[in-house]
Automatic annotation (TrEMBL):
Gene that this sequence comes from: hpf
Record Pfam families: Ribosom_S30AE_C (PF16321), Ribosomal_S30AE (PF02482)
Recorded GO CC terms: cytosolic small ribosomal subunit
Keyword Coiled coil: no
Membrane-crossing residue ranges in chain numbering: none
Name of the protein in its database record: Ribosome hibernation promoting factor
GO molecular function terms listed in the Swiss-Prot or TrEMBL record: ribosomal small subunit binding
Organism encoding this protein: Roseivivax sediminis
Function noted in UniProt: Required for dimerization of active 70S ribosomes into 100S ribosomes in stationary phase; 100S ribosomes are translationally inactive and sometimes present during exponential growth.
Sigma 54 modulation/S30EA ribosomal protein C-terminal domain location: 132-185
BP GO annotations: negative regulation of translational elongation
Subcellular locations according to the entry: Cytoplasm
Keywords: Cytoplasm, Translation regulation
Coiled-coil region list: none
Length: 189
């Protein structure tokens, strides 16, 4: 397994890197089975240390966790605890997912755009000069080909509010999202 442990504007010592590798290896061995790589990023936000971890599984699913604490080791421990809880919750489904899927999740390329929003304090009643939005950035993104259950699991593991995916059964683009009432919404055009 490949580990990438970095710090944003802070120095990460060898002892912390070794600690992160051993703790993540032990946790992932219990649940995931075949993780391919892990990215752990430490940063500082005010007086707190922030730890963000993303683990890529061989089937194409990702598990994401983020935590803050006043000490850097405590931030990692809280982040690892969140990831452990997510993986424990989905352990059976991950194992079933590994058995059913012999090949990695198929990814389809798509364009992703970031559009300029309205400025704070701008008059919302004024008509814009044009109805064409201003494109701030253009990127390439990947849309996974999943079942609805796998899409919900991926959204939960990634901690994302929404996930766009290609439905394996109907071969169309679908969306799952977290509703305000705590339930999951599914859009199937």
């Amino acid at each position: 397994m490949h580990y990438q442990i970095t710090g944003k504007q802070i120095d990460i010592g060898a002892a912390l890197q070794t600690h992160v590798e051993t703790e993540l290896s032990a946790m992932l061995e219990k649940y995931a089975g075949r993780p391919t790589d892990a990215n752990v990023i430490f940063s500082k936000s005010g007086h707190e240390h922030v730890c963000e971890a993303v683990v890529h599984l061989s089937t194409g699913l990702n598990c994401t966790a983020k935590a803050k604490a006043t000490e850097i080791y405590a931030a990692f421990e809280a982040c690892a605890e969140k990831m452990d809880k997510q993986l424990r919750r989905y352990k059976r489904r991950l194992k079933d997912h590994h058995k059913e899927r012999t090949t990695p999740v198929e990814l389809m390329g798509a364009s992703s755009y970031i559009l300029a929003g309205t400025e704070d304090g701008a008059d919302d009643t004024a008509e814009p000069d044009t109805l064409q939005p201003i494109i701030v950035a253009e990127m390439e993104t990947k849309i996974p080909s999943l079942s609805v259950g796998e899409a919900v699991m991926q959204m939960e593991l990634a901690g994302a509010p929404v996930l766009v995916f290609r439905n394996e059964k109907k071969d169309g683009v679908n969306v799952v999202y977290r509703r305000d009432d705590g339930n999951i919404g599914w859009i199937d055009p």
